C-alpha cells in the first residue's frame, strides 16, 4: 500500500496476539459481514435518542453522565478483544453526540469529543501492534509541530505558558484527531453492510439534536427572524455547528433512503429523517448545513450504479422526498414570513472572506514557518480592535497563517487523505458514501474550520479498506474428508477477529 510502512513481526502471532498454525499458504481474508439493518431496531433507536435529546436539554448533569459513559464504553471496547468495527461504530456515535453534549451544557472540557475519540482509537491502534503505519497522517501532523515554538515562546501572547497551552489545545486538537482516526480506520475493513451501520450510528445522536431544537421551538410563543443565523432556532447553541451536524445527518439519511438494497419501510423512515434534519438545518438560518448536504449528495451519487438509482422504487422515494421538501419549504417561508428566502438568496460570507484575507496577509509576513499555533486569532483581534480572540473560520488559510509553507503542504495532504477512496475503492455504495462524507468535510473546514470532532473522524474514515465478501466454498461430505490421505489435509488456521 502506498504511503504505508511495514514493520516485520513474529510469523506465529496473529493480530490478537495468539499463536496461529502455519499452513505455508497466505490468503486474504474478507471481513465478516455485518448484520442487516432491521426497521424495528432503527425506529426504536431513533425514538430513544430523540427522547434523550429532550432530557439532556433539561439536565446538563445527565448529558455529562452520558458523555462519560460513552468514553468508558469506548475504553472497554479498545481494551477488550471486540472487533475493531464495533469501535468504529462507537467513534461515529461519539462524533455525532458531541454537539448534543455542548447544547446541553455538559460539564466537559470544550475539546472533549476530539480528545476522547483520539484517546480510544490510539489505544486500540497501539494495543493491536504497529505492524503497519499509514504514513500520510503522520507526516501531516509532524509538519505542524515547528509552529509550536513561537507560541510557547509567547511572541504574541502576553499571558505566558497558560495561554499558550490553551492555544495549542484548541488549534491542534483537530489535526491530532485526523492523525488518530486515520491510523485507526486504516486497519478497518468495510463492506456495504458495515458502511450502512456506521452511518446509522452517527444519525442516532443527531436525532437527539433535532428533537432538542424542536422542543425549544414549541416552547416559544413567538420567534423573530432576521438576516443572520438564529440562535434560538439552533437550540441555544452555535448555529454553524448545529447546522453542520444536521446537514451531515441529512446526507447519511438520504443516502440510506436511496439505497435500493434496503426494504421499503426503512427507506421511507430514512427519507423522513433526512427531511426532518434538513428542515431544522434551514431554520437555523445558517447556510452551512444545507450546502454541505447538497454538496455531499452531488459527490456521492455519481459513484453509485445507475441501474440501482433508476429502479422504480428508488425513483418513487426520490420523488416523494422532493415533493415533501417543497411542501416543507413553503411552510418555512410562511413560518418565517419570507425571511428564510432572503437569507438563502444572500451571497454575504459573514466576514469569513475578510478573516481569510487577514490570514493570507499574516502568512506573507511569516512565509516559511508561520506566525505560530493559535496566533492568527490574536492577530485578527488586534487588527479589528476587538477584545479577546477572533478565531479563523477557514482551516486552509489558518494553516498558511500559523504554519507557513509547511502548513500549505499539510493542507495538500488533507486533500489527499480525504480523496483516498477515489483511488482505493471500487464504485458502489461505500465509495460514494465515503467520498460524499469527504466532500462535506473539506467544505466544512472551509466554513467552520475544525471546531468539531466530525471533520477529523471523516477524514480518518476515508482511510478504511474495502473488502468484498468471499463466497463460501462448498463443503465436502464428512466421509470424503475422512478418507483423504493425511498428507493432503490442510492444518486448521486460527482466525483472528481483530479486523471484524
Description:
The chain is mainly α. It has a domain at 35-132 and 188-217 and 230-348 and 419-466. Helix content is 63%, strand content 2%. The protein has a two-stranded antiparallel ribbon with strand order 1-2. α8 (192-218) crosses α9 (239-257) and α19 runs antiparallel to α20. It is globular, with a radius of gyration of 24 Å.
What labels would you give this structure?
mainly alpha, disordered C terminus
| Total of DSSP H or I helical runs spanning 4+ residues | 21
Termini separation comes to 20 Å
Order of helices and strands: EHHHHEHHHEHHHHHHHHHHHHHEH
Q: Helix content range of the residues, please?
A: 55-70%
Please give the largest β-sheet.
Answer: 2 strands, antiparallel
What structural class do the secondary elements suggest?
A: mainly alpha
Low-confidence stretches: 4-32, 479-484, 493-500
Strand order of the largest sheet: 1-2
* Mean residue pLDDT: 83
Radius of gyration: 24 Å
